[in-house]
Write a structure and sequence with these properties.
- The protein has 375 residues and is an alpha/beta fold.
- The chain folds into two domains: 73 residues, ACP-like (Non-ribosomal Peptide Synthetase Peptidyl Carrier Protein, Chain A, Orthogonal Bundle), CATH 1.10.1200; 255 residues, Alpha/Beta hydrolase fold, catalytic domain (Rossmann fold).
- Helices cover 32% and strands 12% of the residues.
- The protein has a seven-stranded mixed sheet with strand order 1-3-2-4-5-6-7, with helices on both faces.
- The longest helix has 16 residues.
- It is globular, with a radius of gyration of 22 Å.
- InterPro entries: AB_hydrolase_fold, Thioesterase.
- This is Thioesterase domain-containing protein.
- It comes from Cryoendolithus antarcticus.
- Pfam families: Thioesterase (PF00975).
């Protein structure tokens, strides 16, 4: 069987197992993200062995953990070679994660030039304001989404951070920690010294947490951390691919509220989820934790009732329930393990997770931010 024919056959078998179109697979997507669990991997390996001219084991999905690596494995006829110019076989007995890679000394090494500015001043001026607040983006990567916020205060400057990979999400393969390093110099350019205030919505909470760690390591002080509907990674999983597809297909994701979110948003959101899947944060030492950590949660789910919504999702996944179902008044949700011994504040806003910067819900976010920032 020719190399390309074998790849097409393999992806068709895997696509059928996952109920996904093989043409939609991206080389950087991991099997874990695509929903290939242990039992399904075992059954799919048997189907691949029957369809191809060489045996495939369930562990091969761990040795070649993403689509691109597995395609090279198939093209090599199942030979456990180093896959020239590709990803080498991962020894699954290694104590390192199959997805773990060394971070370059220069975080910009290999990163294409951003197509949008890294930062946008949304309110006030950094040069003459009393308090500057840096807001990190959600999975869309657009810090400009905070531009719908009502005026917070005369002495407050809001700066939104844009992802370096907006409009080029195919190049977004960075870890959460490396993304934080990409933003660090931009933040310090706008505020070289002083007491920092950071915040972020959803994945933006992870970014702001990691930037906090970087600033503290550099001898700076972070006065306040604002976590906006950001589920702690110690408690909540990364969003499964099937859920991303269901939300996109049913018009439940994206700031426009359109039937389908813009393709650039879907691509960046998918890349973000892949990065979150590899992310497992470590705690700050108690003396380094910001003096104030504020939580702003929504209480509404994306649907009123999952059972009658028509969505095909696994409610056994905590983060799926977090997004879809109505909630009570959440508190620290595991963040206390990463940010011990500080003063926690809690507030709640209207809307669901994807409506946070949409009118009219953004007004209630603005109200919560005023209570936090206007002393």
């Amino acid at each position: 069987m020719a190399d390309q024919d074998a790849i097409v056959t393999a992806l068709n078998v895997i696509g059928e197992a996952l109920s996904l179109e093989p043409d939609d697979f991206q080389d950087h997507e991991t099997w874990k993200f695509l929903g290939l669990g242990e039992l399904l991997a075992s059954a799919t390996a048997k189907d691949l062995t029957n369809a191809l001219e060489f045996p495939v084991e369930a562990d091969d999905f761990l040795r070649y953990p993403n689509v691109g690596a597995f395609k090279k494995f198939v093209a090599a006829g199942g030979e456990p070679a180093d896959l020239e110019n590709g990803i080498p076989k991962i020894e699954i007995s290694s104590p390192r994660s199959p997805l773990e890679t060394a971070e370059p000394a220069d975080p910009w090494d290999g990163v294409p030039k951003p197509k949008v500015p890294l930062s946008v001043v949304l309110q006030g001026k950094p040069s003459n304001t009393g308090r500057t607040v840096f807001l990190l983006p959600d999975g869309s990567g657009a810090g400009t989404s905070y531009g719908t916020l009502p005026p917070i205060g005369d002495d407050v400057c809001l700066i939104g951070l844009n992802s370096p990979f907006l409009r080029q999400a195919q190049d977004f393969t960075c870890s959460i920690e490396r993304m934080a390093r990409l933003w660090l110099s931009e933040i310090r350019k706008l505020q070289p010294k002083g007491s920092y205030i950071l915040g972020g919505w959803s994945a933006g909470g992870y970014y702001s947490y990691e930037i906090t760690k970087l600033l503290v390591a550099a001898g700076e002080k972070v006065e306040r951390l604002i976590l906006i509907d950001s589920p702690c990674r110690l408690v909540y999983e990364a969003l499964p691919a099937q859920v991303v597809d269901e939300l996109t297909t049913n018009g439940l994701m994206g700031a426009s509220g359109a039937k389908r979110a813009p393709e650039w948003l879907v691509q960046h959101f998918t890349s973000t989820v892949l990065s979150v899947d590899k992310y497992m944060p470590t705690p700050l030492a108690a003396p380094d934790v910001p003096a104030n950590v504020d939580f702003i949660w929504v209480r509404e789910g994306l649907v009123k009732d999952v059972a009658t919504s028509g969505l095909k999702v696994d409610l056994g996944v905590k983060v799926t329930r977090f997004l879809l179902e109505p909630r009570g008044m959440l508190k620290t949700e595991g963040w206390e393990k990463l940010l011990p011994g500080t003063k926690y504040g809690f507030d709640y806003m209207t809307g669901n997770h994807f409506q946070i910067t949409q009118t009219p819900h953004v007004e209630t976010l603005g109200k919560a931010l005023r209570k936090i920032l206007i002393v």
